[in-house]
Amino acid sequence: MARGQVSEARSRLLETATRLFYTEGIHSVGIDRIVAEAKVTRATLYRHFPGKEDLVIAYLQAVHRLDREQVGKVLDSGRPAADILRAIAESIADGIRSAGFRGCAFLNAVAEYPDPDHPVHKAVLAHRAWFLRTITDLLAHVGDTPPELAGRHFVMLRDGAMAEGCLSDPAEVCETFLRGVDGILQHRSTSGSGTKTA
């Protein structure tokens, strides 16, 4: 019973921190606010997260896991690589169009933690390395030219769409982003000797 209650308290803390960090920013949200809204004691928080930094990293890891699960479902679909990339792009566009969208959790976090040696900064870079690797590996199956430049291009389009999506009309941003991804795929399909299957 005690173990279940502890897990519930941790979940509540993480859910509360995730909501507040994403909507209001990390530095602007204090521990007292998180404790109050999660309805736990400070002692409970520190039992699960020794400091705020640990809670921030747990928040980013939770978002990372969610992203990996969403991408994993598409990867497991057995579709051709180009279709998987379009589905990933559509998922990103869906997020931008969603209510309460406030940009990329990772780009937002790294803006608050610019020191490359800081654990939060490193957590952001680890997520981005995974995403770039995933996209680049898929692009290797579309066309015959090296995929690295196209992978970086996709990620830059995604970053721009995530930043612009909370500043401009999300519909226009998503249309521009999805057309850009199509352009990458069409270029790769026609620049090599053909299209490989995934």
TrEMBL record:
Question: What are the protein's UniProt keywords?
Answer: DNA-binding
A Pfam entry, by short name = TetR_N
Kindly indicate which segments of the sequence are annotated as binding DNA. 30-49
Recorded superkingdom = Bacteria
Listed name of the protein: TetR/AcrR family transcriptional regulator
All copies of the HTH tetR-type domain together span 7-67
Classification via InterPro entries: Homeodomain-like_sf, HTH-type_TetR-like_transc_reg, HTH_TetR, Tet_transcr_reg_TetR-rel_C_sf
